[in-house]
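Input/output pair, single chain:
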Amino acid sequence: MAKALPKPNLTAGSLYSQSARLIFQRHRSLIIQPVLILILSAGLALTLSRAHLDVIEKVTINKAFIFRAIQDHLILSFASAAVILAVAVPAGILLTRRRYKKFTPVVLILANIGQAFPAVGVLIIAGILFGFGKPIAIFSFAAFGILPILRNTIVGLQEIDPFIIESAMGMGMTPKQALRQIELPLAVPVILAGVRTTLILTVGVATLGVFVNGGGLGTLIIPGLKLNRELVLVTGGMLTVIVAFTMDWLARAAEELLRPRGI
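Output:
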């Protein structure tokens, strides 16, 4: 007589440890990245606390100036990304509808042209034509960074199997219902990847906001270059890296939370 196979001993503790292991493996990068951000922040703070600043360095390397620069940088980055989202996602949806598909190549060419121009060139030209300040910087950065979200929205919707949409329509859904309940949820991972790329892109180009009196961490980087103050330059560069890592982590966390289950 064949021996019966032993039943696996699945206790509550073992199930919990397996679940914790799976969660850690899936979100390992989300745990490691904040640790790296804290290490970089602590290292920068320690370096600045031990540095002997001259009169010129004290003008920019102080809490009030740094906090204001970070605040302006975040405003430029988030506002630019919000403008891009408000324009690119609806435009991407519209260009995947049957009536407007013929315009897709032309719109993508225009978006590629906007990103092909140097960001500082777009910024300076916009400043000369329309004036200076944060609004001009925000809309210039939005024009420069619209391509990733627009392209990913179009690609994410086009990659959906047409049979799925036809089945939904056959079950009585209207085109708007199919878009809202099926197409957009399935396209979310691809769209969010574009959002993440755009966020990092806007954090980088926001350092140029100083050229049109828009503020940002460029107020540390540019004087550091002009006045040959390495500590000021390194501080501005490290703060930009920390902000970029933080924005990337927030985008990745949002991507995990908003991703439909099973995808």
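DSSP finds twelve helices and no strands in the chain. The radius of gyration is 24 Å.
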